[in-house]
Amino acid sequence: MIEFKSVSKWYSNRFVKTFVLRDLDLKVTQGEFLSIMGPSGSGKSTAMHIIGMLDSPSRGAYFFEEQPVHKLKERQRTELHRETVGFVFQSYHLIDELTVYENIETPLVYKKVGGKERKERVEAVMARFGLTDRRGLFPSQL
C-alpha cells in the first residue's frame, strides 16, 4: 500500500519557495493500478520520485506498506527502495559499457542475489524477450 498524507514538495532560494506538490493526499491499495496524468510541470515526476523513494517530501507523511517512509533515515530508505521498488524510466538508461547480459544482471548484483540464481533469472528474462542471441552486444549495437 502507498499512502500520502498532505505531502508537499518545494524548492527554495533566498527569496522564493516554489511548490511542485502541495498537500497531496493519495492512497493506492495492493493490486490497484494507478495512472498519473497532467500537464508538464504539474508534479507527476516529483510524485513518482517520492513514491519510488528517490526523493523525500518537504512536508507531509508517506507510508509504504504501513512503514513511515518520511521518518526513515536515508540509508533505511535506500534499503527499502532496493528491496521493494522497481523503476522503468521513460528514458531508460542502459549502461553503454555493459553488455545486454550485464545490464540485466546489474540490479540483481545490487540486491546481492547469488550467482547461480542471478544467472537463471537473467537467462529467463533474455529468453522471455528474445534477447538470448544478443547477450554479448552493447546498447549501441542493439
Question: Overview of this structure, please?
Answer:
- Strands 2-1-3-4 form a 4-stranded antiparallel sheet, covered by helices on one side.
- The radius of gyration is 18 Å and the shape is elongated.
- It folds into 2 domains: 2-84, 3-Layer(aba) Sandwich (Rossmann fold); 100-141, no CATH class.
- It has helices at 44-51, 74-84, 100-110, 115-128, and strands at 2-12, 17-28, 59-64, 67-68.
- A hairpin with a 4-residue loop joins strand 1 (2-12) and strand 2 (17-28).
- The termini are far apart.
- The chain is built from 4 helices and 4 strands; from the N terminus they run ββαββααα.
- The protein is α+β, with helices and mostly antiparallel strands.
Features:
2 domains; 4-stranded antiparallel sheet; 4 strands; 31% helix; 22% strand; 142 residues; elongated; alpha+beta; Rossmann fold
What can be said about this structure in brief?
This protein is an alpha+beta fold and about 140 residues long. It is built from 4 helices and 4 strands; from the N terminus they run E-E-H-E-E-H-H-H.
CATH homologous superfamily placement of the largest domain: P-loop containing nucleotide triphosphate hydrolases
Kindly report the spatial arrangement of strands forming the biggest sheet: 2-1-3-4
Mean pLDDT: 91
Query: How many separate domains?
Result: 2
**CATH architecture assignment name of the largest domain:** 3-Layer(aba) Sandwich
Number of helices in the DSSP assignment? 4
Shape: elongated
Major β-sheet, in short?
4 strands, antiparallel
Examine the coordinates and then state which fold CATH places here, giving the name of the CATH topology of the largest domain.
Rossmann fold
Rg, rounded, reads 18 Å
CATH class of the largest domain: Alpha Beta
Q: Uncertain spans, ≥5 residues at pLDDT below 50?
A: none
Strand fraction band?
15-25%
Q: Count all strands and give the number.
A: 4
Helix/strand class: alpha+beta
In percent, how helical is the residue content?
Answer: 25-40%
Task: State the order of secondary-structure elements, H for helix, E for strand.
Answer: EEHEEHHH
- What distance separates the N and C termini? 37 Å
